[in-house]
Design brief:
Layout lengths: L13 E7 L8 E5 L2 E4 L4 H19 L9 E9 L16 H15 L8 E10 L11 E8 L1
Parallel strand pairs: 4-5
Antiparallel strand pairs: 1-6, 2-3, 4-6
Helix pairs in contact: 1-2
């Protein structure tokens, strides 16, 4: 039998939040000329700011400001606005799921909720249409849960 590890009381074990807004990808670049590139998504700055704000507000509500500093698992569901005539039952269109995760993770790092996204060793990410079922939100955004392993 191994020795039980006891975490200090102020050590965060789980953190969940919802951020409302238009999920935007990070990683695709547009060439602007003269060797300059910029993020292709014009929605990325507002999306990243919304994530940081949602995290800061939740931190204030829970009165906990400690950072994750050990391996974590992340579960995230992105809620995408459904077009008038979707091609499939799921949002298998742009933005790419991996690029949505990249923008989310960099925003979490910016908010100082974790030391760095290299701590993520287990990830479950998905995209669904918003407002489709009782499990989804009526508006676009993301539901995120981060847990210590």
């Amino acid at each position: 039998m191994g020795k039980e590890i006891v975490l200090p009381e102020d050590k965060r074990k789980e953190f969940s939040f919802f951020v409302e807004g238009r999920p935007a990808p990070q990683g695709s670049k547009s060439y602007r000329g003269n060797g300059r590139f910029s993020e292709a998504s014009k929605y990325l700055p507002a999306w990243r700011a919304a994530i940081v704000l949602a995290i800061k507000q939740k931190m204030l509500q829970t009165e906990s400001v400690t950072m994750f500093d050990e391996p974590v698992k992340v579960s995230v569901t992105f809620f995408i606005t459904k077009p008038a005539k979707p091609k499939w039952a799921y949002p298998a269109t742009t933005p790419d799921l991996d690029k949505l995760v990249r923008g989310l993770f960099d925003s979490i790092t910016q908010s100082k909720l974790w030391v760095d996204d290299c701590l993520v060793v287990d990830l479950h990410a998905r995209e669904v249409w918003c407002g489709e079922t009782t499990d989804t939100y009526p508006v676009s955004g993301a539901r995120v849960t981060i847990s210590v392993l």
